[in-house]
Amino acid sequence: MSQLPHWDAATAGVVEARLGPPPAPRFFSPAEEATATALLDLLLGQDEEPRIPVTATIDARLAEAQTDGWRYADMPEDGQAWRDTLAYLDADAEVKYGAGFAECPAADQRALIQAVQDLGSGDWHGLPASRVWSLWTRYACTAFYAHPWAWNEIGFPGPAYPRGYKNKGVGRREPFEVPDGRPADDPVREGA
Amino acid sequence: MSSQVRHRNESAWLLPGDGTRTNHRLRRDMRRFADTDEIDLVIVGCGAGGSVLLQRLARAGWRVAALEAGPFWDPDTDWFSDEAASHHLYWTEPRVITGATPVPLGSNNSGRGVGGSMVHYAGYTPRFHPSDFATFSQDGVGADWPLSYGDLLPYYQAIEEELPVAGEHWPWGDPHGYPHRPHPVGGNGEVFLRGARKLGITAKVGPVAIPNGRFGNRPHCIYRGFCLQGCKVNAKASPLISHIPDALAHGGEVRADAMVTRIAVDERTGRATGVHYVRGGRERFQRARMVAVAGYSIETPRLLLNSSSSRFPDGLGNDFDQVGRYLMVQGAPQTAGRFDDEIRMYKAPPPEVSSEDFYETSPARPYQRGFSIQNVSPLPITWAEHVAAQGHWGRTLRDYMSDYVHWCCLGALCEFLPQADNRITLDEETDRYGLPVARFSYSQCDNDTQLLHAAQRVMEDILHAAGADEVITIQRFAHLVGGARMAADERHGVVDGTCRSFAVPNLYITDGSVLPTQGSANPALTIMAVAARAAGLLRAGARGGPS
Fold first, then answer.
1. Per the CB < 8 Å rule, is B398 touching A44?
2. Do B232 and A162 touch (CB under 8 A)?
3. C-alpha dihedral (B30, B36, B38, B42), degrees to nearest 10
4. Total CB pairs under 8 A between chain A and B
5. φ and ψ at A105, to 5 degrees?
6. SS3 string of B151-175?
7. A10, B185: Cβ pair inside 8 Å?
8. Which pLDDT does position B3 carry in this prediction?
9. 8-state DSSP, A87
């Protein structure tokens, strides 16, 4: 955020707002909020403070019905799909572990959502599991990778107006860009 | 050359040269017609097709207004150099998608507001190839257009000068040059050029609708990489800056925030009389001697279907069940490669380098038609979709994402074939105006799927040849065309080669929905050229069209 003085006022405003206190929940019930937070923490690997307030961001989006402009014919609209699928997660947790999803240990939570992913395009409580998975990850990643902390983690400098870039090309950096701190750490290479 | 352009389209010179992006005086002083004025032409939609039509006919002295459902943007205050904050650039009214391979809408292919989806397109503006206009007679697939490449050529050239387009000499299709020199490339483009060279694939820089140098009062591109979030620089062309200023200066009206709900037709004469629209919650009616619809491939068919009457019980101009059919998308898999070097693909405009080596049908390949390959440069949220599409989540997702600066990305555009059952119908669900929303059914055919696999293989080969140690692919779609196509007669399409409706003599459709085929080219330039040609023919005829 040290680069904020270099951004245009309109953009600086929307980015800075993400660092302030998130809006109070309006869409999720307290029980849904708890289940959603447990799910989103797992999907995004957020296991320690400070956390990016992903649940609050998604709650605000759903409260404003800010959808992507389409829904699958075999899925409810996004807000209802979130409510339904959080309830199904709780139901699965009750059946398998005798507790609500949010009350289960992380390993059990992980097993429950892995089971949903493993269904692929199969049926999960009457919904195509792959479309449920896509709904969760789409909202989760949009909320998480909009946040400047996440940009820092991946080496993205954020807004670039009106400054722009002067040094483009393989291996070239601007004075304000930081080299990869662990260049040898390649997550896709065998044994890395 | 730019002085010649200025003589016929002064838009770039009507923008402010003081570092702000909007000529507020031009908008304040804009001519405003009354609903009760019977204007010469009312246009529905102010994107690629509607804006060009408005500019051309305003210049010819027509009394013409364009009604746009979305806002009249000011890039300074309304657009952000940020992915998540750009959601308002997309058409996000409800729509239902279905079929064997449903196509997500919204951010990727639907715009709202003055400028349409060209506000958030990447900026690639290739021409179609001559073969695209006769795929049925040449390849036995798709359809023949009721016009030829040669009919469109002068309009391609005119629009390329007005945007203007920058790129290397183009060796494919009908070989041609561009008015502006190619831009320098970033890391993403370098990798593409390097890999292609090793494999003997021809790749060229361009064509992009971003002037290389100043153009009128439009400044040079600053290579900030946010083309898809609306260009705050006024460098990347959209109709908001390439055609609307000139239209306003010549007496055209843009009526923003006006949602057209129905086209009115006189039951006795069978002619269109104007459009019903809602603005600020009030229902209004604009009278006009002619109506042109330019709402793009989803909203144009939806409006026709929602404009049924006793004369047209199944939708306006739908006597032969053609409205909404043959809607096309391009298969657009994107393949990314990981390099030890830092690529930083977010720097430089996403549109950089293209190859059209695989565009046409070849006897050496088992499928008909083909694909093109271009650079794409996903920003973090979009990049997360690529990584999540591999099934990664949790810590693995975060670890992959942390390597963002090492990845380079290519995208293919595969020419999916037009099929009658890929279409828009009306759903039971209604929107806030009480109108049925569009239901879009889409299913790929075998040829489509073969193209996807072939394109992915070529992209993987290019990235490996350039030195990638790992490649990942995400399956997606891009662009929309068709849905109200032009044809030789009313049993095969909705409009004729001049964009005039077969059923209603003073109703025109001037947007991407009239395209009978799509090639593997991004459609913006062709949509503008088709609208410019329709405008030219209207201008040459009597004002108000044939009686």
1. yes
2. yes
3. 60
4. 214
5. -60, 155
6. HHHHHHHHHHHHCCCECCCECCCCC
7. no
8. 63
9. H
List Cα–Cα distances, A110 to A88, A90, A97, A115, in angstroms.
15, 13, 13, 8
User: For each of chain B's 547 residues, which pLDDT tens digit applies?
Assistant: 556 899 999 999 999 999 999 999 999 999 999 999 999 999 999 999 999 999 999 999 999 999 999 999 999 999 999 999 999 999 999 999 999 999 999 888 899 999 999 999 999 999 999 999 999 999 999 999 999 999 999 999 999 999 999 999 999 999 999 999 999 999 999 999 999 999 999 999 999 999 998 899 999 999 999 999 999 999 999 999 999 999 999 999 999 999 999 999 999 999 999 999 999 999 999 999 999 999 999 999 999 999 999 999 999 999 999 999 999 999 999 999 999 999 999 998 888 999 999 999 999 999 999 999 999 999 999 999 999 999 999 999 999 999 999 999 999 999 999 999 999 999 999 999 999 999 999 999 999 999 999 999 999 999 999 999 999 999 999 999 999 999 999 999 999 999 999 999 999 999 999 999 999 999 999 999 999 999 999 999 854 444 3
Residues of A in contact with B385 (CB under 8 A): 138, 141
Q: B232-252 pLDDT, tens per residue?
A: 999 999 999 999 999 999 999
Question: How would you classify the pairing of strands B371-375 and B353-355?
Answer: antiparallel
Taking CA–CA distances from A153, the nearest residue in chain B reads B402
Residues of B in contact with A72 (CB under 8 A): 96-98, 102
Q: Is A151 in Cβ contact with B380 (below 8 Å)?
A: yes
> Residue A155: closest CA among chain B residues belongs to which residue?
B405
Q: Give the integer Cα–Cα distance in Å for B482 and B495.
A: 11
* Pairwise CB contact (< 8 Å): B104 & A68: yes
Which of A121, A149, A170 would best serve as a mutation to test chain B binding (most B beta carbons within 10 A)? Answer: A170
Q: How far away is chain B from the Cα of A91, in angstroms, using its nearest Cα?
A: 22
Range A52-89 burial, b when 16+ CB lie within 10 A, else e:
bbbbbbbbbbbeeeebbbbbbeebeebbebbbbbbebb
| Backbone region of residue B496 per phi and psi (left: phi > 0; alpha: psi in -120 to 50; beta: other values) | beta
How many C-beta atoms surround the C-beta of residue B210 within 10 A? 28
Residues in A 113-142 with any Cβ partner in B closer than 8 A: 117, 137-138, 141-142
CA distance A23 to chain B (A): 16
Residues 35-94 of A with CB under 8 A from B: 42-45, 66-74, 77
**pLDDT for B348-359, tens place per residue?**
888 899 999 999
* Count of other CB atoms within 10 angstroms of residue A35: 25
- Give chain A positions within 8 Å (CB) of B210: none
Residue type present at position B49: G
Residues A79 and A73: their CA atoms lie apart, in Å, by 15
Phi, psi for B138 (deg, rounded to 5): -85, -40
pLDDT of residue B543: 46
pLDDT score, position B545:
47
Beta-bridge partners for B284: B277
Give the H or E element holding residue B540. helix B524-540
Cβ atoms A113, A43 nearer than 8 A:
yes
Residues 6+ apart with CB under 8 A from B239: B46, B47, B48, B50, B51, B52, B114, B115, B116, B118, B528
